[in-house]
Specification:
381 residues; alpha+beta; Methyltransferase, Cobalt-precorrin-4 Transmethylase, Domain 2; eight-stranded antiparallel β-sheet; 8 helices
Length: 381
């Protein structure tokens, strides 16, 4: 894969690739021209992309000739593309038709060159595989993988291992979230948060579980991963970097960006109302989940955390608590029936793709209210 963000790839980068005789690799493949309209061309494209999906991802670079004897870049060959948007859609349609199972996160960019343009097709490592090349006109299926500079057919053991590996990552992600919630259950948070009910948000990166993502925490700005307004006390730790808002040695809110790209947010979700009864702030908790998810998605883009993620929202230490339908009104007599409410898991297909936060949290909103005996959450204004 080219060591550049896609928006940084320019004509100068193309020329540098050729001047330095950059070699093809397990994550980099050079092509002179885009695939044609024949089935053989479509199958070749699907084979190249699925091979990268099944391995470590990578870049297909169009507009560069290679020295076939050495597998190195030879010369820049600008292409003429009259309508790039149309061509990009054509490539996407080919991949959708010729590759199983469904995949996410492929990006296609045009690079202006003297006399034409180049194209870079960036393929992420997939967590939904293994993927196979499928001819729409036949029952033929072919599993391939990028192996060094070559693309080869996967063995039966490789295919089986790939299926098992995909399932294993989800198991690891869920266990990571459970382990974090267990610490909150035991009130073993990085900064103490008193005896109040807590709202907790966990986003676990599957790329991080596969050890494909590693955030350089030295370059992280705390303002990128806090779910509250105002300042914070950022602190490096073994897991990554945390931020805290509080006083007197206790935190009102805290967040953590892990080195593996996962993120954690928590805040006090209620206090004692009339008669000293603990209550949970409904709107505050839901706004916190929305803010945490919004901040997480922005931070993922900023720090290039890609691929799928699992999100868990929870209310902790809420048994017997009353639900406040409005943070400023007296509590209604609706009580939590258990100490810990873990809401339905949310699956995000690709952190690099824009997502509708309200849509992702729709079930969480209803289940939170149902946990206190209501039919559903009130409609958002």
């Amino acid at each position: 894969m080219l060591p550049y963000a896609l928006e940084k790839i320019s004509a100068a980068v193309f020329q540098e690739i050729c001047d330095q005789r950059t070699s093809e690799s397990s994550t980099l493949d050079f092509k002179q021209v885009l695939p044609g309209k024949e089935d053989d061309d479509k199958e070749e494209l699907a084979k190249d992309v699925s091979a990268l999906l099944n391995a470590d991802g990578g870049d297909l670079v169009y507009g560069i000739s290679e020295d076939r004897a050495t597998g190195t870049a030879k010369a820049v060959l600008p292409m003429t593309i009259d309508n790039f948007d149309k061509e990009s859609r054509r490539i996407t349609q080919i991949l959708d038709a010729w590759i199983e199972s469904r995949f996410h996160g492929i990006q296609i960019v045009q690079v202006p060159l003297d006399g034409g343009c180049g194209v870079v097709l960036r393929v992420p490592m997939s967590f939904d595989g293994p993927h196979c090349v499928r001819n729409p006109n036949s029952t033929k299926r072919r599993f391939v993988i990028r192996n060094g500079k070559m693309t080869s057919d996967m063995s039966f053991d490789q295919v089986r291992s790939a299926f098992n590996g995909t399932a294993s990552l989800a198991v690891q992600a869920r266990e990571f979230a459970r382990s974090r919630l267990k610490l909150v259950e035991e009130r073993k948070t990085r900064m103490p948060m008193g005896d109040s009910p807590l709202a907790v948000f966990e986003l676990v990166s599957l790329s991080g579980m596969a050890r494909r993502t590693l955030v350089d925490v030295k370059n992280v700005q705390f303002v990128d991963f806090i779910a509250w307004d105002g300042g914070a006390d950022p602190r490096m730790n073994l897991d990554g970097v945390g931020a805290y808002l509080g006083s007197g040695g206790e935190a009102y809110s805290q967040s953590q960006l892990f080195r593996n790209g996962s993120m954690e947010f928590m805040t006090i979700a209620g206090n004692r109302g009339e008669g000293g009864k603990l209550g949970v702030w409904a709107s505050h908790s839901l706004e916190f989940f929305e803010r945490s998810l919004t901040v997480s998605l922005k931070a993922a883009k900023r720090y290039e955390i890609t691929g799928p993620a699992l999100v868990t929202c929870a209310l902790m230490h809420v048994e017997g608590c009353e639900l406040a339908l409005n943070n400023n009104l007296p509590f209604r007599k609706k009580l939590g029936d258990r100490p810990f409410m873990v809401f339905p898991e949310i699956y995000i297909e690709d952190l690099s793709v824009d997502a509708d936060v309200d849509d992702l949290l729709a079930d969480t909103r209803d289940v939170l209210y149902q946990g206190f005996g209501y039919t559903a959450a009130p409609a958002k204004k």
